[in-house]
Amino acid sequence: MTDILEKGGITRRTVLAGAGALVVSFSLLSRSLAQEATQPPAPEPPKLPGSLDENRFLDAWIRIDADGAITVFTGKAELGQGIRTALLQVAAEELDVEPGDIELVTADTGRTPDEGFTAGSQSMQNSGTAIRHAAAQVREILFAEAARRLAVASGELKAEGKAVIASDGRSVGYGELVSAQMLHIEARPQSSVKQPGTFRVMGKPMPRVDIPAKVTGGVAYVHDLRLEGMLHARVVRPPSPGARLANLDASGVEAMPGVVSVIRDGGFLAVVSEGEWQAVAAMRALATAARWEEVATLPEQADLPAVLQDLEREVGVVSESGSPDIGDGKTFEATFTRPYQIHGAIGPSCAVARIEGERLTVWSHTQGVYPDREAIAEMLGMPLEQVRVIHMEGSGCYGHNGADDAAADAALIAQKLPGRPVRVQWMREQEHAWEPYGPAMLVKVRASLGGDGRISGWNYDLWSNTHSTRPGGAGALLAARHKEQSFTPKTPELNISPSGNGDRNANPTYVLPNKRVLWHFLPDMPLRVSALRALGAYANVFAVESTMDELALAADADPVEFRLRHLEDPRARAVVELAAERFGWSNAAPPSGRGRGFGFARYKTLAAYLAVAVEAEVERETGRVRVVRAVSAIDSGEVVNPDGIRNQTEGGILQSISWTLYEAVTFDDTRITSIDWSSYPILRFASVPDSVEVHIIDRPGEPFLGTGEAAQGPVAAAVGNAIRNATGRRLYDLPFTRDRVRNAIGA
Amino acid sequence: MAISLKVNGATHQIDADPATPLLYVLRNDLSLNGAKFGCGLGQCGSCMVMVEGEAVLSCVTPIMLLEGREITTVEGLGTIEEPGPVQEAFIEMQAAQCGYCIPGMMMSAQALLQKNPAPSEEDIRNALSTNLCRCGTHMRILAAIRRAGEVMQSAGMTSTNRRTG
Q1: Is residue B42 a contact partner of residue B60, using CB atoms and an 8 Å limit?
Q2: Which residues of B touch A207 (CB under 8 A)?
Q3: Which CATH number fits domain B77-161: 1.10.150.120, 1.10.287.630, 3.40.50.150, 3.30.70.20?
Q4: Which residue of A has its CA nearest to B141?
Q5: In this predicted complex, what is the ipTM?
Q6: For residue A574, what are the domain limits?
Q7: Nearest of A657, A684, A538 to residue A597 by alpha carbon
């Protein structure tokens, strides 16, 4: 196992360090660049496509060995979203080889480019775009070299079987064509990428390359990593966020079978054993032996709107135009809330760490190997270059969960036991209680209709924490906060950005000439929060799209037609029209106990377009809501793997149904009380829809827009709108639990 | 005192505390990756295996109860080169996102299909009542199990001709 994971001993750093100045012969340059080169040199380096802009050398992305072995490097990580397969498709298309000819190396600080976090549905835009252009440029270089050697025009060559072939049958293998530093050149801004009509691999469904091992018991996750001499560790977390360790007598635990070490570093407690079950038993004993002083630090859950408003310290203007208070017709005013919600990975967070000499290696399902490395190095006081973080898959994370914390736990424990690899896995209760949650939010909307049946004024106020407390610094890690020499988290700052954070999708895609959108920013975080799939877009789209439905009713308009009335972007209109058509949208009365609901958003107001129509049934006696069917349409730009887009979108729809109908973190004034699947219920098979459809609008030649998070907000809204349609009552507070539904409809 | 466990047709002498849940023995003593730790509470089904044809939560079943009984994990359903019908169907329907819960789903499905090769939609949903999926792969999981049922039926893999214990 170690050999497999650590092969390819040459690191990217040594490659880069060993390289001299860049010399590119003009014969390799395209005509367009040759023309540019006659102009005066630009003061700034040219903007390169995707993540090439930050990692500019071709060989940071693609390596071809003398034996023809092709390796592609990405700084992004497979999270179960299928990125490994889609990136292979992109690389194979542009390199003119088969996906199976390529070894893809994902996020590893020792080998791959630094692409920050695998987050925000940006892997295709950033890494996919970079690999596509790098591969196209490598292919051009190979063809130019083959043309020179075979003394034929490049246009008379074709690629087959990892070789360049002339029309007379002579061929040269890719491996033979590449010489030492040939690919160690900076990428150019333009590339001759394949034209959509000529695709062999892209745009076609490709079975996920990781699924066969996952269904047959192969090593697929960091949880499955077994290193020689590996020890098993468990941490003992405080019983509540504000608790301090008063005293501990660990002697009984140290004497337990298999226990190698009991670790106490300030308030950080862990046990290390030869066997995993022994570690679990020792963890329980240690938890019993520890005495904590608990402090009531949590807010009043039942009064969340007031709590959030009290925490406001600053206001940011997200968008402002015209006169938002204008309106001579009907006005709709409402307050919406979203609770704290968990990521809830089915497999609790896990990591393996090992100190060898001066060097630390950590295997982690982190979303950001480079930022995690920096945080861990800071926590341990180690030089950055002595720490390597290697991504291995975990259970699906859907954002910033316990992954980085588990990596830090393993690293801190491994530092105290040099030479022995240490595997840490969290318990279910720890994952539920300690992962950073998706932040609670409050939204107040006041919108009015004009005499022309259009929205005349729009006031939108949201209250939220930041939605990202990722590393960034050791203070982001639980272990670093709890240890004796502790680190404190950075104070979050209000930042209004185009893609948004808590304010993501607060500014609707609809044409609203008179609007004011404000983010009331809450720097204090009574509960630990960070990025959960879609960030603020989940609650904001829910609020915006609920409002759109109420305004449509006030305007006596069909909800779909009312949306189209306010949409100018043809791609936005296209998904709305397609979802409505495939659903069979109509205003005929729904069957008794059922309702129809619609939702739309352009994710981040600048990425994928998604519209969804749902039919839901509402049991009046119990308040139980079930989505019977959902029909969606998505445009995420040029399609690489259509089945990947479908799979991600189906998943987003079902996960959002789960969030929307069932999920809320619960707590008293001191402790988190939702600590397992019984106290934090999620969607079960009995309640999944009868059918879910995903219709894709392909946009050949357009940029990749990303897919993974587009459904979260629109689905929440569509479910709420369907309940409104079925019962005549609108629900303003997520989730739509049975009690809330029953109370709303007065059953 | 060693306990004798019969896993995927092979007998192993396990030297462990008899109270150890089967899951830990499968993963650590036998290096089998299929069964996963999800909750340790019997709430999520990631650790599901079959014991004599019944779906059993291995995270809460101590090995002392399993001496000499036929235990099947996902590794016993087939291999990556020669996947069994349930595995084949999950690959064909691309019924995984992160895939962590999937082996548990497959074991619940296998136990169902061995007893009832032509299950109704309700039968399938009931058989998966303790299995949780967080990625939202439910529709594909249901489709894969329907597909596996068809394949097993046409291959005559019914309860009288079962593939595994």
Answers
A1: yes
A2: 91, 94
A3: 1.10.150.120
A4: A685
A5: 0.96
A6: 311-340+437-467+502-745
A7: A657
